[in-house]
Each structure stands twice: as C-alpha cells, then as structure tokens.
Amino acid sequence: MVPISSSPRHARLRPVAQTLGVGLVGLGVYAAVGHLGYLPHPPFQLAVLAAAAVLFALRGRWPGPVLLVLAALTGPVPAVGPVTAAAAYSVARRMARPRPRARLLAAAGALLVVCATVAGPRLGPGSAAYGLALGLVLAPTAVIVPGLVGTVRGQQGRLLRALRERGDAAERARRLADSEARIHERSRIAAEMHDLVGHRLSLVSLHAGGLELALEGAAPQLREEAVLVRRTTRDALRELRQVLGVLGPLARDTGPDALTHATGTRADIEALVAQSRDGGIAVRLDWAGPDLDARPAPVRRAVHRVVREALTNVHRYAADAHATVTVEHDTAAADAAADGARVRVTVRNGARPGPPAPAEEPGTGRGLTGLRERVELLGGTFEAAPLPSGGFRVAAAVPAEPAEPGGGPAARRADDGPGTLTAAGPEAIWPDPAGPEPAAPGPDGRRTAEVLTLGFGLAALSALMVVGIAFVYAAQPSGRSGPAPLPRVGMTYAEVAGYGVLDNAAVRAAASGHEPPRPAGTAGCVYPFNGATERHPGGLLIARYCFDAAQRLIAIDRFDVPSVRDATPWETP
Question: Which runs of E-coded beta strand occur in 316-372?
C-alpha cells in the first residue's frame, strides 16, 4: 500500500515493509483495546493477528480471496481491522473494473458483519445483537472507507498515466512530423543539387572525354591534361553523390566508396599526397607511428578529411608553394599522459614565390569550419592560421579512441556515412531546435507525501476502530439485574459494610430515645443512612443493624421516629 522507491533493492523490500507496517498498526489496536479491558481471549486474538499479517503479504497474488478471509477474521478479532483496511485499499486501487470491485467490497463488508454477529456470544461483546453492532462499526472503517479511497487513488493514477501517454504520443508525433519535414526538405535540396550541379559535372566529364579522344592524335602532350580533367570531374561527381546521400532520404545507399576500411590509413593519405603531386604541388608526407587501420572509423575519416581539405586549399591558394603533410600516431602518450593515444595531423605550406595571386573563386570558409566541428565532436583540437613567413598551417589532434559523447555509437553513425545514418536518425544532422526535454523532477517528494498521507489515514481509521469497539463493549449489560441485594442475618460486619451499610451519626442521634429495645447478645448497632432510611409524613423510617460480640449480624430492625414541626408565624391555628 505504501509506495517505495522503484530501485531493485527497494522493490524486494517493499512487501516486507508493508507487511510489517500494517502488522504494527494492528498490534497497536490490539494493545489499545487490551488496555481498555475489552479484549477477550488475548492469546487467540494475537495468533489471529499474526496469521492476518501473513495473509496480507499474499494479496498481490490472490487479492479477492485474501480480502474476504481478512474480513472474516476481523469479525471475531477486531485487531485485524487495520490489516483488512490496508488490504481493501490495495485491492481496490489495483482493480480497474468498477463492478467486480464494488461486488468484492460489498461481499467483504457483509462477511465481516456476519462473522462479528456469529462470534459475538463467545468471542465478542456477549450477545449476537452486540456482535452485530460491532460488525456494523468495523465494516465501514475496515472495508468500505479504505476501499473507496483506494478506488479514487487507482482511478487518479490510471488517469494520470493515460494523460502522460497521450502527451508522450503527441510529442512523438510532433517530433516525427518535424523529422519528416526535414527529410523532405533535404530530399528537395538533394534533388535540386543533383539536377543543377550533377548535370553540369556530367557535361564537363563528357566534354573532357571527347577532348581526350580529339587530342590523342592531334596533340598527345595535351591529352594527359584532358585525362586529368575527366578524372577530377568523375571524382567530384562521386563526392557529390556522397553528399547527396547525406542530404537525401536516410535509407539511400551512396555506394561502396562512402567509407572503406582504407579511409584514413597510411595508404589512403599517401594516395591523397600523390594526387596533389600529380596536380603540380610539391608536397611531402612525414608519417610517424603505426598505421591507423586498427583505429575507429570516425578517427580515420577525420584524418582523411583534414588532409584532403588542407591540400585542396593549397591547390586553390598556393599551388606553386611547397607543402608538408605530417601524421603522428603517438601511442606512447597513452602511458605518459592521462588522455591516452592521439593522432596529430599537420599540413603546412610555405609562401608563394612572388606576389600572391587571388583565387579565381573566393572561399566561404565552411570547409575549415566543418573540419573544426568534426574534430571537436571526437574530443580533439583544431587550429588553422596563417604563418608569419607567409604560409598557412592546419593542425588537428584527435583522440585515437574517442570517448562515448564524441566517438560513441551516435557520433559514429553520424560520421560513418549514410549506411549507418539511418540508425542515428535525422537529429544527428539537424538537431531539434527545441533542444532536449528537461528532466522531470524526482518523485521522492511526491512519494514521501503519499506515504505520510496513507500512514495518517490508517492511523485515523485505527483510532476510530478503537473508539467504536470501546463504545460497543461499554454499552453491553453487566449481567446483574434487579435491585441491589440487601444484607442478611448471619453476615459478618465486613460483608455488611461491603453493601454500603455504614454508621451515620445523624441517624444515630435521631434514633436515640425512640428505638425499641436491642436484642439479647447485642454488642453494638449500626444506623446507616441508605435506602433503608426513608422519610414519610410525620416521621422518619430508620433501619438498625445489630451485631454480636463475634461481629455477626443478629437482627435488622426498622422503626419510626416522629418529627417535630413548628407552625410558621403566618399560619393560622
């Protein structure tokens, strides 16, 4: 009945705590009724109370039978009332159907009244009528009121759960609608880029192929340039398809070249450097440490992107300058530093010989911004700045084994290409602008308030049970009928005094001079002022109890003593 924390340990201790709680409350009722003197057969009632506490622990498996048995035990043993009240609350709270719940509570209340009536003559107040009165007192406090409270509490909980589920469903529907809107927008952008840029690149590749064929015989020395244009256009078209795969539908496959096991390895970086040399860049590769083939895919892809973007900038802005690509796979740092092994990538180019030539197309700076975000997502650092000598330097340091927030499953799904982006969901690329939902406040305060409320309620019902039991037992007859017995001749002085027959000085003075002679053997007489002394017109009836030397009552005499009455001054003779 009392909710406790939902941790596994507390879940195991919950039944024990509830059973002990209601058992202690029932023991309190047992002690209170016993203190008032209204507890017949105490050992039997204590044994029944212990059995009721054991039955209370089984209410979760057999709620209806347990409640009926506890109600039947409450009739002859009122101390079981708190246990029955807790069971009625718990069972009514868990039953969702109203008609079976109402029938069960009515049957439990009626069974309690019947058992109390039957057990009244032997185990109750003393008669069937007073047993019925005791049952009518216990039925509302032990069954009806707790059952109604449990019904209200259960309906409130089910209503709150339904409202919470509807709210969650509405929130999920809103998020799904936002996600679908983003997916459609990305698909539209992808379609426009494919129609505009992809078509243009296809035409460039087609014309480059035609130019290659035309120059094969006319100008063989220019054929290699046409071949380079065609291959570069083909690579650009393939990379465009990869980007369109990210922007397009999430289930779309971008081909096997999106991410391979060789991406970011030494052979892959050497291939990038070789392509730059073929394009006319004087570039050198310095590799220190083991290969990256055993490192996670996000790390290898980040290294690939940093080298490729830096070399692309060298192609655009310093094609005739010398460049150096340095990759350091520092595994020894794992033993010397707390941050573990790291991969450091540095691309440095010198100044152009002569005045700097402006680029044909000014850059937007998004390439370096994207690299910074990618590296920082993995928990690394990124720097890009011009050198005092006139060149440019791009440096990145990436953890070889990223932590979960940057390199965990969610980040890897967002980074490994479209093949795994489906599991991450669209929020991996476009986060929800509303941000994550705020954490709900802990239920400790609410549960504490509920525990206190239910505890006070059970204590109040127990107090009402004690008061009702006391009233019923106090109202039963004492077993003595008719007028109080009078002293008899032969009783001792102590026995006569036990009936309230004590000497009164005023009555003795009134009897002086008017009493008859005392019986022979009288050692002393008592003149009480009790029911035997009566007043009548013209005199007073006095009773005299005479005892012998052995303090035995030998005679009871009654005689009249006349009263003196003077006329008042205003009365006429």
Answer: 322-330, 342-349
